[in-house]
Amino acid sequence: MRKKPAATPATAPAASRPFVYRNRTLYCDNISLSSLADDYGTPLYIYSGRQILERFQLFQHAFQDRPHTVCYAVKANSSLAILRLLGKQGAGFDIVSGGELERVRRAHKPALTRVVFSGVGKQAWEIDAALKADILQFNVESEQELDLLAARAQALGIRARFALRVNPDVFAETHPYISTGLSEHKFGIDIKAARVIYRRAMRSKWLEPYGVSVHIGSQIRKVDPFAAALARVEALVSQLRRDGHDIRTVDAGGGLGIDYSDAPFDAAHQVERYAAALIKGLASEKAHLLLEPGRFIVAQAGALLASVLVVKKNGSKTFVITDAAMNDLIRPALYHAHHEILPVRQPSGKAKLITADIVGPVCESGDFFARDRAISALKPGDLVALLDAGAYGMTQSSNYNSRMRPAEVLIDDAKVTLIRRRETMRDLLAPEII
Ligand SMILES: *Cc1c(COP(=O)(O)O)cnc(C)c1O
Q: How far apart are CA 348 and CA 369, in angstroms?
């Protein structure tokens, strides 16, 4: 490892949920969600900084006996304030574009040397920016990309550290849109072809074989597939060492899943199981371990707060229409993902439950957050919180239906910081030309 990340205390923090009822009102840590709606409006993304740091520390703790760097996957939630929070704790970053590289630079410049660059279609300008930023390594996903990397490295006179992202051909049970580790997927290089490509790379003095990387998908709840993938990577690494390559890093990717239901979730235990599986897979391999968790760090730290606009009945169905929509949080529409939805005012034990579709105002039948969900009766003006929305929420938002994106706030105990203001009509129209 070239540079040591900042030291972090390796204590296991207590597991805790940031969104809980107090005095019959939903809170995020020490802030009531109804006060946030008053101050910042809705829809509003709310994140608990405390939980983000706790989750990061779970990884630091579980891997404390091995040299490692947690390279948080920026695409899960790329807010500058959240990147800064993690960067200051010594996190590295997994990026997939030149835009994400620039975010890391703006958020916490010293973290640039802890960046790994993933993605199947890197462009020359993005590679150039990353070479100049002296990132830790490029995770290369094709031979063509390796040729381009060599050419750009030569043009700039900067040697490129690279890892091949290998495709281990292991099956991970998850949604087909977020499974990536089978040979039928577009990601990575067939693990059987990797050795020849590393050997070929030795011919270029501008390429430094530095690691091997793997990422088998997202929202993976069982840990065995990680162990299976890493065992294949370990066999490749020892082969590469015999071939004379100085392999310094093994990048295990991200993908550890969370529980989106309201069942009790022991995050610390899940990370311990994950660490044990990885370490089992890499039994005799001592390379510096890179981890790329995204969802696991931020998902449960975030909620999307919305106001009920209309409650209407069509035939036998009840629809609760909120001011948040699929353009703000697309996961239910895209992956049929489940999000718990809580009324901000806690209903009394005797309150009547209704069965309703909770939907947004966008002109698409796919614009739903929940279907046939049992929820306490709601009326216009009531507030609801969509839980576990911290990952792949705001980062997948859009201006569809010419809607302005929500504001975002970061909670630190009893302090609220606006980390992104609500978009305005001016923002919406700014890039257009007539
Ligand atoms: C998306 C992605 C991650 C993060 O995945 P999570 O499921 O959010 O942990 C990590 N590495 C790569 C290469 C990715 O594409």
A: 24
